[in-house]
């Protein structure tokens, strides 16, 4: 297996090996498939100060597409100047998630997201796989999740950057409150 190091690996952890491990685990559960379209990967910060520091770091390595409140905490998405690469797979974006208030989170790479043509077909083709399907019928951005030993894979119908563009155009992005980081 050939992996390429990335300038952010020393800060976030080895990203290409993380992607490789999750795809290897996915193939063990679901069988081999054509080269997957890995849309983005996610890093979860353990603290708000860490989140703010990482926002600055990521801004030097990519373009901020959006920052907004999702699930009660800020999430920022960046299009990397240099995508994460592993074999024929390239990962163009990274999502940075702040911790949810009142919860303890471990910092680190958390999940990858893949684009598939049909969530229903994916689930139907793998009846023995324990997919998380609670968000499968979400109107704006449906997904199916798969928990694996090394992290989670989420399957979506469209690239995150396309969803972000739509949310920006329709005013669906919930801004981070101006005083959210006060008191740090």
From TrEMBL:
InterPro entries: DUF991_YecM-like, Glyas_Bleomycin-R_OHBP_Dase. Pfam families: YecM. PANTHER family: DIHYDROXYBIPHENYL DIOXYGENASE DOMAIN-CONTAINING PROTEIN, PTHR37519. This is VOC family protein. It comes from Aeromonas taiwanensis. The lineage of its organism: Bacteria, Pseudomonadati, Pseudomonadota, Gammaproteobacteria, Aeromonadales.
